[in-house]
Amino acid sequence: MQNTPNKWNRLLNDRRRKKDATSVAGEVQNSNKNESRTEIERDYDRILFSTPVRRLADKTQVFPLDKNDSVRTRLTHSHEVSNLARSIGTALIYDRQIQTGHVSAARDVPAILATVGLLHDLGNPPFGHQGEAAIQSWFVENSDSVLGCLETEQQRQDFLKFEGNAQAFRLVTRLQLINDDFGLDLTYASLAAMMKYPTASDQTDSSHVAKKKHGFFASEEHVVKQVHSETGLSLGQRHPLTYVMEACDDIAYVVLDAEDAVKKGLASFSDLLAYLEMKSADDPVVKKLIEDSKAKHKEYRNISGRLSPSELNDVSMQRFRVYAIGQMVKSSVDAFMTHNEQLVSGTLEKPLLAVSDCENLRKQLKDFSVTHAYNHRSVLEIELTGFNVIRELMDIFWMAIIDREKQFQLDSKRQHPFTRYVYSRISENYRRIFENPTPNDRKFGIRYRECLLLTDMISGMTDSYALNLHADLLSRKGSFDCKNFARGS
After folding, report:
1. Which of 45, 228, 240, 420 is positioned for an S-S bond with 414, CB 3.0–4.6 A?
2. Can you tell me the distance from the alpha carbon of 213 to that of 163, in angstroms, rounded to the nearest whole number?
3. Which residues contact 375 (CB under 8 A, 6 or more apart)?
4. Residue 394 and residue 468: Cα distance in Å, rounded?
5. How far apart, in Å, are the Cα atoms of 398 and each of 121, 166, 489?
6. What three-state secondary structure class fits 16?
């Protein structure tokens, strides 16, 4: 077995697929001698300036299409996860002095964590997890007609269990940038660390943290194998920094969603403390958090005449957020150091927070948001609208994808004027990838690639774009029966 520093050198592999491929082809690329960033720092910038990141501003975090601009979107959530992850990376290097033996670890560990924190939700469809559920349900309902002729169980499960994580991997390795087959061409280290579930869709296991869901489609499995070969990992084995990214996602998810529930007036700061006291008064971490938050609330309340009741509620909740995040970040760092060997070897089967002293706090905060936010009528109403919109859009786009005059000529003219219009609304780069398959694409049948084109298009939409496009297409379709057309495919 390799010693830890040697393993870290592979885990922080800063080479890129495109450069390796062109080197093999005899076209070695010259490095930019004027570049002051490390390769992994460049990954962060490639993600930051990419179009999918900007789209996150109009994608649901918890509250779809919310008009309160202080409530979080997927973009603000992703920036918060990225910042928390970078902070933990800095703490691991400088405070705990974790030994990696990697020459630029002090810069690369925080940078890779910031990168994967920023991109972890890039593949999410509109309307949050309801978007995933809508896509899955459409394929389940159309399983016989749409998926019946697929060649393997993995290909079928790719869509029956559609995953935003797998779509994110496809997005950065294939769909972004259209002049080659390398996408954003991130380093091997970043690609490995972004894979929360390095597992195929037909190999999932709900009892294992890295196998609960799938993290790539069959179409990108060859990329995953290359990434794992270069980083010393294997299927079902996480990169150690992936556990940190997941912990930061969970911290932002439970703490900040609770804060948003309070901002929207669905609950109050006092409701939150009362809930935690009722559920976990004996937990030392929760007890300390409640005591500190109450003390600060009392201090704010004593500022006579300066704070209105709503301001007192908001500022007390903000202080709670600071205390809760601080404790959970510290616990994550402690847990990483305690379980360092398991993390580096990829054998830890639980999330990082689950082996920390903040796991109970995480659970109770999540339960609070489920009770006061996720199941609130206002949220459920808009989620239902989004669910129905996505399913109807899938009927319409599926019709346009398969309605070709020449079935085996993918760029063939669509037979009906409406399907021609709909097909033209699919993003040009997605159509180009579909119509011009690579040698790897040709390993898969046309039906599988048609399904990928459908999910590529739906996943790339923002909430508002999906609603507006849905209204536009319905106004144009006339009597054309999209639903039965899809069922008869």
Report:
1. 420
2. 8
3. none
4. 15
5. 25, 20, 9
6. strand
- Dihedral sign of CA atoms 241, 124, 444, 161 in order: positive
Q: Is the dihedral of CA 292, 297, 300, 301 positive or negative?
A: negative
Contact assessment for residue 171 and residue 123, using Cβ atoms and an 8 Å cutoff? yes
- What whole-number distance in Å separates Cα of residue 249 and Cα of residue 252? 5
254: Cβ contacts below 8 Å, ≥ 6 apart:
362, 365, 366, 369
Question: How is residue 390 annotated by DSSP?
Answer: H
pLDDT value of position 291: 94
| Dihedral sign (CA 342, 347, 353, 358) | negative
Quick one: 215 exposed, middle or buried, by C-beta within 10 A (0-12, 13-18, 19+)?
A: buried
Alpha carbon distance 27, 225 (integer Å): 23
> What is the arithmetic mean of pLDDT over 413-430?
94
Closest to 58 in 3D by CA, of 465, 470, 390, 384: 465
Q: What is the pLDDT of residues 441-473, one digit of tens each?
A: 999 999 999 999 999 999 999 999 999 999 999
* Architecture of the domain made up of 265-373: Orthogonal Bundle (1.10)
- Please tell me the least confidently modeled range out of 71-80, 152-161, 293-302, 406-415: 71-80
Tokens of 368: 């609070």
Amino acid code (one letter) for 325? I
**C-alpha–C-alpha distance, residues 199 and 207, integer Å:** 13
Distance CA 141, CA 151 (A): 19
Q: Where are the domains of the chain?
A: 4-240, 265-373, 378-487
Vertex 137 angle, CA 370 and 125, to 5°: 65
Contact between residue 423 and residue 401 where contact means Cβ atoms under 8 Å apart: yes
**Is the entire prediction scored with pTM above 0.90?**
yes
Residue type, 105: A
User: What is the third-level CATH fold of 4-240?
Assistant: Hypothetical protein af1432 (1.10.3210)
Residue with tokens 């496809």: 170
- Of 128, 249, 239, 129, the C-alpha closest to 194 is 239
Q: For every residue of 320-332, which 3-state class applies, written as one string? A: HHHHHHHHHHHHH
- Which two structure tokens, joined as six digits, stand for 302? 């004593």
- Residue pair 259/323 in contact (Cβ under 8 Å)? The answer is no
Q: Residues 6 or more apart from 71 whose CB is under 8 A from it?
A: 61, 62, 63, 260, 263, 264
